[in-house]
Amino acid sequence: MTLFVSQASDTPIYSQIEEQIKSQILSGTLASGTPLPSMRILAKDLRVSVITVQKAYENLTRDGFITTGVGRGSFVAPLGDSFLKQENIRRVEEAVENLLETARRGGIDKKQVIEIVEKYFDKEAQHENS
Amino acid sequence: MTLFVSQASDTPIYSQIEEQIKSQILSGTLASGTPLPSMRILAKDLRVSVITVQKAYENLTRDGFITTGVGRGSFVAPLGDSFLKQENIRRVEEAVENLLETARRGGIDKKQVIEIVEKYFDKEAQHENS
Amino acid sequence: MTLFVSQASDTPIYSQIEEQIKSQILSGTLASGTPLPSMRILAKDLRVSVITVQKAYENLTRDGFITTGVGRGSFVAPLGDSFLKQENIRRVEEAVENLLETARRGGIDKKQVIEIVEKYFDKEAQHENS
Amino acid sequence: MTLFVSQASDTPIYSQIEEQIKSQILSGTLASGTPLPSMRILAKDLRVSVITVQKAYENLTRDGFITTGVGRGSFVAPLGDSFLKQENIRRVEEAVENLLETARRGGIDKKQVIEIVEKYFDKEAQHENS
DNA sequence: GTGGTCTAGACCACT
DNA sequence: GTGGTCTAGACCACC
Fold first, then answer.
1. Residues with Cβ < 8 Å from B33, sequence gap 6 or more?
2. Burial class (CB in 10 A: 0-12, 13-18, 19+), B2
3. CA of C45 and C1' of E2: distance in angstroms?
4. What three-state secondary structure class fits A8?
5. CA to C1' distance (Å), from B78 to F5
6. C106 and D117 in contact by Cβ < 8 A?
7. Which chain B residue is nearest to residue C71, measuring alpha carbons?
8. A13, A99, C111, D58: which could join B95 in a potential S-S bond, CB 3.0 to 4.6 Å?
9. Are C75 and C66 spatial neighbours (Cβ–Cβ below 8 Å)?
10. What is the pLDDT along chain D (130 residues), one digit of tens a residue?
C-alpha cells in the first residue's frame, strides 16, 4: 500500500486517503480481502494523526469499500466485479457531466469537445509508448 | 442578471456567485461594459449577507473580470474575444484531462468514454427541446 | 430543545444525542426548518466535548435529518410527512421483527405474544391517566 | 451444535456465541447435561480465537447456563422447566417494551401495532410452509 | 458568530 | 495488538 498525502492541498487529508484507497480498490490494485494497514501504523507512515486516518477508514466502511472491526483490523470488503465496474462508470459519467456543463457554458460545441477528447487520448497513448 | 445560489451546496456561496458571473461573461451573456447590480441589491435579491457578495466582487476584480470603483459601481471589464475563447477552451481541456484520468484509473477505454460523452450530449439535446 | 445524555450508558454519547434529535424530528416535536443549537452551545449545555456533538450532527446530516453549513448553523431538514410516517413505521417493523424472533426462539406462540402486547398497552394507558 | 458468527456484525463475536448457545438452551434444542464442544474445537470450527470462545463460556457459566470444570469440559447446566419458561417470557416482555416505546414515539397507535405484528406473524408462517 | 479539520493524548472493549 | 470513544485545544474559512 503506497499512499501519499499533501498537507498543503485544500482537500482534507482524510479525503485524500479515502480517494486513494478507493481508487486502488476500483482499479483492482487492492483485491477483496486484502488487509489494510492498522490505523496507527498508517498514521505513523503518513506523519498524520490517528484520528485523521480513522475518519478516512470510517467513511470507507460506511460506503462499503472496506470492513473494519475492533481487534481484527480492516480489510478490503468483498465487492462483486459488477459493483466495481458500475462504480467506475458512475465516476466517469460524473466527469462527463462536468465536462459538458463546462463546454455548454463556454459555447464549445459537440464536435470541438470530441476533438479535444481525442487529442488528449492520443497524447496519453504517446506517453505510454515513450 | 439572473443568479441562483444554493444554501445547501458545499461550495461557498461567494464562490457560487463568482462562478456564475464568470460563466455569463465567458459565454457572452454579460458583455463588456455591462453594469453589475450593486452589492446591496444583489445581496438582498439572493437573501445573502453583503459581505458575501463583496467577497465575490473582490475576487472577480482581482481576476480581471470586472472593474469596481467607489461611488461608480461595478462593470464587466473590457475583455477581448480571443481572451474569452482561449479561457473557455482552457476550461474544457481541464475537464477533459480530469475525465481521462478518471477513465484510465477505472479501466474504461476510449470507445466507452466516447459513447458516454455522446449519450450525455443526446440527453442534453433532448432537454433543450422539451 | 431538551436533551439528556448519560455518561454511564454503554451507548456512545453521540448516539444518544443523535437518537433523541431523530426522535423529536420523527414525532413532530422538531419541525422542518427549526434551527438547532450551535454545536458549541449544545456541548456546553450537555457538559460534553464539542467534537462529540459534532459527530452527532455529522451523522444526522449524512442521514438527511438536518442540514448544516459553516457560518449558517444547523437546521431540521425539509422532510415530507410521508417520509416521517414511513420512517416511523420502519422503526416499528424493526422492533416487531426483533420481538417475533425472540418469541420464536423461546417457543412463545402468537396468542401469548398478542396477550403480552395488550397487557403492556393497558399498562401504558394507565400511566397516562395517573 | 451448529453456530454461526459474523465477523462483519458490530456485536462482539463472544456475544454472538453466547446468544446462540443461550437460545438453543432456552428453546430446548440443547438439553440439560448435553456436553458442549471443547473451546479449542469450537474456536477452530468458527475460525475464531480460543480466548473469544473462552470469554463466551465464562459468561455462560457466570449466568448459570452451563457448568465448566478443568479436565471435564463444559455441559449444559440442569435448569428447571419453570426457569426456562420464565426466562423466555422475560425476554419477550423486554422486546415488547422496546416495541411499544418505539411506537409511542412515532405516534403509531395500538391498532396499527397489532396489525404489523399480525402481518409479520403471517409472513413467518408462510416461510415455514415454503 | 458558525461549522470543518487536525492535533495529541487518554481510556476502553475486543481479539 | 486492534479499532471506538471522548477529551481539550488549536487554526481555518465562511457568514
1. B75, B76, B78
2. exposed
3. 17
4. coil
5. 58
6. no
7. B12
8. A99
9. yes
10. 789 888 777 788 999 999 899 888 888 889 888 999 999 999 999 988 899 999 999 999 988 889 988 888 899 988 887 888 888 888 899 899 989 988 988 888 888 898 999 888 888 777 766 6
